Amino acid sequence: MRTEQARPVRLSDYRPPAWLIDTVELDVKLHPNATRVRAVLALKPNETTPAPVVLDGEDLKLIGLSLNDTPLTAEQYVVTPDGLTIPQPPAGPFKLTIETELDPAANTRLMGLYKSGATYCTQCEAEGFRRITYFPDRPDVMAVYTTRVEAEKAEAPVLLANGNCIEAGDIAGTTRHFAVWHDPFPKPSYLFALVGGRLGFIEDRLTTASGRNVVLRIYVEPGKEGRCAWAMDSLKRSMRWDEQAFGREYDLDIFMIVAVSDFNMGAMENKGLNVFNDKYVLATADTATDQDYASIEAIIAHEYFHNWTGDRITCRDWFQLCLKEGLTVFRDQEFTSDQRSRSVKRIADVRGLRAHQFVEDAGPLAHPVRPEVYNEINNFYTATVYEKGAEVVRMLKTLLGPDGFRQGMDLYFTRHDGHAATVDQFIACFADANSADLGQFMRWYSQAGTPDVAVTVSHDAKTQICRLEIAQVVPPTPGQPIKQPMVIPIALGLIGADGRDLPLVLADGRKVERGVVTLTKPSDSFEFTGIAQRPVPSLNRGFSAPIKLSANLSADDLRFMAARDSDPFNRWQALQTLATTLLIDNVSAIRTGKSPREDAGLLAAFAAILNDRDLEPAFVALALTPPSEADIARDIGRDVDPEAIFAARKALRTAMAAHLGTALPETYQRFAATGPYSPDAASAGRRALKNACLDLLAVSAEPAAIARVASQYAAADNMTDRMAALATLSVHDLPQREAALGDFYRRFESDPLVIDKWFTLQAMIPEPGTLARVRELTNHPAFSFANPNRIRALIGAFAQSNQKEFNRGDGAGYEFLADTVLALDPKNPQVAARLMTAFRSWRALEPTRRVKAEAALRRVAAAASLSRDVKDIVGRTLADNS
Ligand code: 0A1
Ligand code: ZN
């Protein structure tokens, strides 16, 4: 009998589990090659009709199996490579005892129980628990876990699992010891975790709003304790914020974070025992950049917030992944906005959304926020599920207002606490709490694709009416050729000549609530009265909906917005829109052998922003950053020539440097001395602006400018300034570059996380020699295909962030990636599949490159044995969706 879940898996096939599990008692005896796991499962039927017990299992060696303490005979069960079935179990509840043996040291997939260096750790989301024991490894089976971990004291003096520690001690007459952990909160198997190893820790405490005293610990490899202070500080601020912003407090006696150096993703929210990629824990001023500090803060918060949105309320099935991820990303974004600058955070998030999610949504891997089918769930930890999922939650708040949103959240927490919920149940809480009909809103979960919204503005001086005609089109995506109209909340303002927002009064005399009009039909019009002169409309303020917006605005309108809009997001957006228009024109010019033109108005607008002392430096730094090469490629959309895009962008930066003139060195000087390093947002913003100026100053590669960069590199007392200088040097083929790269390596060679930065910078050099350099670096002693951070730092950076060189005209970049994926796939399919997504925009390339990319893709597709992960990505990437 086959126990394997049929592939593809479909949401419409969801059936409740036939058997539930009340308790799980695990006894894990750690050993590098032969870890023994004894699992005692208390099963009870969930259905009245008798059903076989079907348990998932992968890469397991079954040692023993008994039912109510009686060993099962070979005829009573069936074991296959992917599970174990008991065809005729007893009718009522029973106890199943399973003994399995695992080889953690050989676990290169980093799923299930594995070794990261000397540390034993687990990763069970999404389907890793089945690599530890046979189990109904699906999130709607929630059980109370008690975990006993046993190990050699010398090998693993620290033994951790979920929950509270209820017993620990030595095993008399041996060199071994044990610890027993009990987690009183029922949880799905994907939230199980255990850790064993020789670890140091830092400890703090927090008293929750209701007076519960919680111990907080961060465990790291011994010697790294001094690099955890920022992570601990971020954790405490996250815990406090969740109490204040959402009324949620922590619920166990202890909260633990363990940092490991081998991890497939960023971090994992296991109940009470978060496991982190050490990149998102460890920071000191001389090893971590401001960006690292910000990421640590955000990811610590994200995982902590999962305690309520993910752990206390989990997902019924993996199609509901956005229920926990979209919501938790929204929560971490709000946390960061409150801790730092709301507008700077919003701009950064929208840049990320466009760079990753919009690209995904426009290509063969597009899928709805709640997918309806998957071959491999690991491939759905995507920008669409996470970032677009967060945008959907944000739109709910925009539509319902802050109070209505909070009431919906409160209802969600009370109604579904302790359960595995669905997206429909989540939305029903907001509908019920607000007496709202959110039926049409659900299309944000079911329809893929980024809506195109076109706005036509007209003004009639006689009637004093300003009219907006708004039309939406949702483009076809794989499997969804025809779309229905979405609910699109558009926050807007009508800016008067004096720069002030005019009152938004509709023709029927109603005021526009919270400045938001909502489009629900394919097209609609909105008339605002009492508008004497043509205003400048500021549309989709704060990026209120994740759409592509076009409007009949003039360059003058955009420059006015860049200078005057009360919405900082749209000030930034106006500059981006102006720059994009210019860049796209110039790409065409360059491709036809003409020289790029300059846009004096745009340059003046940049100068005005740089010289506006009232603006936050972090905002100015963002405003001075033109659209990236990937942004331009996305906006061009077809027949993409990365070489021409690179040239157009470089021309704009050259023109900016020339036009901004002395304002650049002046600003650089103004922020040059920032005092002792502090990672706070304001200090980071000053460094960002200073370094943006430094980079622009060096565009010309004039010796004086390069000397200034080299001296900042040498004199830097923090990693942000040192890296910024090195990054600037790295794009100039000059002796100073190799000297600085050599120096950087020697300074930090003992620190793999810093050496990752060194790999990344080299992979991003926009020169033809880079591919050879990257190949060479794969043989560097500091590089390893066994470590996901190293792979992402070198290969990932090359394929995803070096548009020009990955997309070399000769196709060698594609061949290199194909070779790498094929070599990596047998060892770590998850990471291999993720690398493969670098091909996702291949159809948009100009014909020569497109043919070469397709050939590389077809070579991977034809490989003799591919993991399900890579096969799924390659198959969907190549599928003809026309
Ligand atoms: N739930 C985690 C992400 C995550 C997903 C899968 C993993 O398996 C390797 C690990 C982590 C989060 O959202 O942070
Ligand atoms: Zn998450």
Report on the architecture of this protein.
This protein is an alpha+beta fold and 882 residues long. 40% of the residues lie in helices and 20% in strands. It is built from 26 helices and 31 strands. Helix 1 (229-246) links the parallel strand 18 and strand 19. The chain is globular. The model has no long low-confidence stretch (mean pLDDT 98). The structure holds O-methyl-L-tyrosine and zinc ion. O-methyl-L-tyrosine binds at residues 123, 125, 264-269, 302-303, 325, 381. Residues 302, 306, 325, 328 line the site of zinc ion (ZN).
Percentage of residues in helical conformation: 25-40%
Largest sheet: 8 strands, mixed
β-strand amount: 15-25%
Biggest sheet: strands side by side, in what order?
Answer: 6-5-9-3-2-12-15-14
Bound molecules: O-methyl-L-tyrosine, zinc ion
Low-confidence stretches: none
Question: How many E-type strands?
Answer: 31
Question: How many DSSP H or I helices?
Answer: 26
How far is the first residue's CA from the last residue's CA? 39 Å
The radius of gyration is: 28 Å
Determine the structural class based on helices, strands and strand pairing. alpha+beta
Mean pLDDT figure: 98
* Molecular shape: globular
